[in-house]
Write a structure and sequence with these properties.
2 copies of one chain form a homodimer. Chain A is of the alpha+beta class and 97 residues long. The first copy, chain A, has one domain (15-96): Arc Repressor Mutant, subunit A (Orthogonal Bundle), CATH 1.10.10.10. In chain A, 51% of the residues lie in helices and 14% in strands. Chain A has helices spanning 10-19, 22-30, 39-46, 50-62, 84-92; strands at 37-38, 66-71, 74-79. Chain A has a 3-stranded antiparallel sheet. In chain A, a hairpin with a 2-residue loop joins strand 2 (66-71) and strand 3. Chains A and B meet through helix 1, helix 2, helix 3 and helix 5 of A and helix 1, helix 2, helix 3 and helix 5 of B. Chain A binds a DNA duplex (30 and 30 nucleotides) through residues 21, 23, 38-40, 48-56, 58, 70, 72-75.
DNA sequence: AAAATATTTAGTTATATTACAAAATAACAG
DNA sequence: CTGTTATTTTGTAATATAACTAAATATTTT
C-alpha cells in the first residue's frame, strides 16, 4: 500500500525545480568542472539583465547547489559539490526528442 | 569565455522540471524499485483528484521518465529506467534545511 | 567624500503551473 | 445496448514563476 507524506519530498523537489530551467541548468554545467565564475560572465554569455541573473543564482544557491564568494566588487559562484555533473547528464539524457 | 545556446538545455531542463514537484518526485520514488503501479493507487495514496494525477503522470511521461501500459480499464505506470533512484537520491540530498 | 562599478532587492506585469469540476473515452459487466 | 468504472481531456480560477525597470547596497576609484 502506497503512502504519501505531504512534506516528504518538498525539500528534495526544490533541487530539481532549481535545475528545471534552461538558464539555470546551463549555469550549473558551466560550473561542473569545479571552476568558479563571476556573475558578470554569466550575464554577458546569456544576455539577460543582471537582476534576472541574480535571481536565478539565488534559486540555485537556495537549493544548495552553489555557493558564492564575494571578492572586491565581484561575486564568484561555484558548485557546492562538483561531482554533480555525471548525475545531471544521466538524468538529462532521459528525455526523448 | 562562456557561451550560451538558448536551445541547448531546454529539453534537458524538462526532465528536472518534471521532478521538481513533490507529488511527481514521490511517484517516481514509488516506481524506483522497478515495480509498476496503477493510477488509482497513486490517487488513493496522495489524495488528489484523478484529473490532477493524470496530469502529473502526463508530465512525467512527456519527460521520458515513465511509460504506461493499459490493461483492461486500468493504466499501469513504470519507470523507463529503474536505475534512476540513486541519481535522484544523490541530488535530493543537496538541499540543506 | 563623490563617482563609478558590480550586484542584490523590490515592485510590476506577462506567462506558466496547479488543482479542480465537468465532459469525453474506453473497457468491461449485465 | 446500457450502465459502471478507470482514466484522460478541456475549461477555468488561484497561485507561482520569469523577466523587466528602478531603487538600494557595497566596494573601489578618484
Amino acid at each position: 500500500m502506497l503512502k504519501f507524506d505531504k512534506n516528504c519530498c518538498r525539500h528534495e523537489a526544490e533541487v530539481f525545480k532549481a535545475l528545471g530551467h534552461p538558464t539555470r541548468l546551463w549555469i550549473v554545467k558551466q560550473l561542473a568542472d569545479g571552476q568558479e565564475h563571476c556573475v558578470c560572465e554569466f550575464v554577458e554569455a546569456v544576455g539577460i539583465r543582471f537582476a534576472t541573473m541574480s535571481q536565478h543564482l539565488a534559486i540555485l544557491k537556495n537549493a544548495g547547489l552553489i555557493i558564492d564568494d564575494k571578492r572586491g566588487k565581484q561575486v564568484f559562484y561555484r558548485l557546492t559539490c562538483p561531482c554533480i555533473l555525471p548525475v545531471i547528464q544521466c538524468l538529462g539524457e532521459k528525455r526523448q526528442e
